[in-house]
Amino acid sequence: MTTTSTDMFAVEQDQRVAVDLPTRFARYAAEHAENTAVCWTGKPWTFRMLATRAERYAALLDERVPTGGWVAICAERSPEVLALVLGAFTSGRAIVPCEPEHPTPRLRRTIADASPSLLVTDHTAARELTIGYQGDKALLDELAADAALYDGADGMAPTLGDIAYVIYTSGSTGEPKGVMVQQAQMAQLAEVVASEEPSVGAGNTVLAVASLAFDMMIIDIFTALANGATVVLPPGGSRQREPSVLLEAIEEHEVDTIYATPSLLQMIALAGLGTDGRRPVRAITGGEAMSHGLAATLVDRCSALYQGYGPTETTVLCSYHPVTDPSYRPLGLPSTGTTYYPVGEYLDVLPLNTVAELAIGGSMVAAGYHGRARLTAERFRPDPYAEEPGARCYLSGDLVRVDNDGGAIFAGRADTQVKIRGFRVELGEVEAAVQRQPGIRQCVAAAEPDSGGNTELVAYVVGDLAGLRNRLATELPASMVPTRFEALETIPLTNNGKPDRTAVADAARAETGSSVPAAEADADSRTELQRRIAQLWSEVLGAAEVELDQGFFDLGGHSLLAMEIVARIRSDFGVDLPVWELFSVPTVRAWAQALDDALHTSDPDDSTVRSAPATFAQAALCIAEQVVAGVTSPGNVVSVDIEGNLDVGELLAALDSVATRHELLRTRFDLRGVDSMQIVDPHVDLDFDESVCGDESVADEVREWAARPFDLSTGPLFRTLLVEHGAVRTLNLCFHDAIADAVSARLVVAGLAATYGTAGAESGTGSDPTLAPDAVLGFGDLARAQRDRGTGTAATELISTWRGRLPKQVDRPATDHSTVTESRLLTAGQHAALRREAERTGLDLAGLVLGRLRSKYRQYARRAAGRRALRRHRHARRSARLHPARSVHRLLGAGRAARRYRLGREARRTRRTARLALTGW
């Protein structure tokens, strides 16, 4: 009698009706509102704050996105993005997460395939990704401001049949394919995570390292939150996966659980995980096979180690195995609601100790592939062993061998899919991308072990290799760009005429000079650090010689090997080099310079006071203030009436949050030198007053309060007054002209509106529409740029020229102060067209409108005499000279300037010209 693995390997499906994930989250948030939900670079978000934002997003999406519509999200992770995702789940809309760091062409193909009803981007992805995009789109900060206007979701919840998310993975045809996962599968996963070991829930703190575009984010962020765990988001961008940053986050936030691929865990282990008194964590790994060496290290350093398994098509993770013996690492028994079958070609269950393909059935099998009916039918089959009618199973393509103890041991793949540093890669997609390049006739891709025992991607190519890697990097994610290229005269073929994948490596070794050559290094001219870095590269990469300017990736390097080098640098020199920053210029020369800088400098204190020159306008105000104290007050005052309940504590927190974001609100001036300097303090003590008075005396109260002089030397240069009169409270904000104009004052109010209610938790672009797209660029940068333009030879010559042309004295002419006002209300369609034009040109709305006015004035006013001044906010134009890719029209600061154009003297003609200028959109 033949013994099969069915009895040992199948688990009875759970017949309980699962609660959808957003409802599970909302229930916990209601009962534990003040528990911490998200920790990140800003202030922590409580469950109340996250749930409130999520409900507002749900209400907004319910109006803006059709039922069943999809929302594509391309943004760095932040609490605001998490709230948006939870809002989409609540409203029954599916998310299509995209990785901002992926090449733009690939992102565009993904979005084109998904056809979302709404595309949401942050400023890092908006510029290139949205050019030419015709569908509905929104910037995250604008969407956040819109969501703040909604009250809540009013009991809204999805159905279990709704699509929850669509994850795009590598496709064998050369194009990525979208895996559609329903609310039902996500609900079952949340139940499993809550009730089965290794359970995650209230009392746990999870370090979330997965990108939004990686399916593991569902388990390390959203099921964790739904079950009451605290989620820690490391800093965004390249630092998100910096091992030293992750170790700091583990210590700072007392992290006890981390989900990560073996590749990332190896990098963290190399950086010192669990050593030197560092906090041990429970590590749950998946996404690729874990080596014996890594397992031995993690068993020794972690409080517990689990090997997880689960394809994207079966909702992330559907089995775990607690690893105590590093030599025995099976996939584990399937979780509740899941069944495993080791099957043959006809879905027949094969005997024990036989290599077979793993079929996965049960309640976590995904809906299928978007727009790929044939592929869905091939991989998602009717489950012949399920009792439930219509049940399906997924053919994973993973080969396993089930041993006598019921453990499934991974034995390879049944197709050409491989795992590179935890990412799923179809070799066919890599080959298709290579063969699209000019000068390439044929390509075979393979996954092979590198010098460190890790898996690397190798391309065997017939054609010209020059510049091939750089071209591929513009089309493919980093995990899909081969780390090594081998040139062949011909690709060996099998008897049936197909590429012989087993023979290409032998053919490459047989052909002399087939590898990409490395030029000889000029050893005599190298510094000692350059020689030592080159030696490290040579040892780790297995390269005989390394040139100073030869690329790390050109020599077969990747992130794991880089971490090994960084670990050895730490051991030899006692300094930590940020590996992801080193990737920006990956040469021996650049790494040696970075090491030299690290050896001779210390990290700056983030709490230090910073300075920048004052702008010319600010300097003029400082001079006037020194001549007559108080002459520059009261500045700009903005007042907002508030009806209903107001939490003063929340208001103060929102004010503090906005001040933290905007350096101008923390700025004072050093008036002691010849040139005034802006001094930016790390923190500011709020000048906040409350008053109660009658309606008839409100104006006098505010006027007297605003007239108090500011002290430019000590700051703060803005103050707030909350006046209660009758049933209404009026919030008044007063800003010195040196830090904010009227436009900036309105931006602060918008920021307060977006931040109030979340206790000012964010310090990123999340919910504050006033924050500049790139926090590195501040008003001080604009001031420096203005000063730079006002100095030097060219500026001196220009000043001399005008001094020669202009008279020393001039009689002041009589001035006609009569004005003409023309207003026009744009329709919704005209306003939408105007916004599209602004996005296309990269201008802010004010700049675009004034540009059109100027054009029409020129067209209709001709050479008419007279001058009138148009005022505009000039941030966008200034920033374009600094960084063309950054628009900072939302940056706070005194950025007005007068632009004068010739108009007709006759009011009638001027009105006609203005009317014509305001039409046509």
UniProtKB/TrEMBL annotation:
SUPFAM superfamilies, per database record: Acetyl-CoA synthetase-like (SSF56801), ACP-like (SSF47336), CoA-dependent acyltransferases (SSF52777)
BP GO terms, sorted: amino acid activation for nonribosomal peptide biosynthetic process; lipid biosynthetic process; monocarboxylic acid biosynthetic process; secondary metabolite biosynthetic process
GO molecular function: catalytic activity; phosphopantetheine binding
Cofactor(s) recorded in Swiss-Prot or TrEMBL: pantetheine 4'-phosphate
InterPro entries found in the cross-reference section: AA_adenyl_dom (IPR010071), ACP-like_sf (IPR036736), AMP-bd_C (IPR025110), AMP-bd_C_sf (IPR045851), AMP-binding (IPR020459), AMP-binding_CS (IPR020845), AMP-dep_synth/lig_dom (IPR000873), ANL_N_sf (IPR042099)
Pfam families referenced in this protein's UniProt entry, alphabetically: AMP-binding (PF00501), AMP-binding_C (PF13193), Condensation (PF00668), PP-binding (PF00550)
Domain Carrier intervals: 524-599
Keyword Nuclease in record: no
GO cellular component, one term: cytoplasm
Alphabetical keyword list: Phosphopantetheine, Phosphoprotein
Protein name: Amino acid adenylation domain-containing protein
Organism of derivation: Solicola gregarius
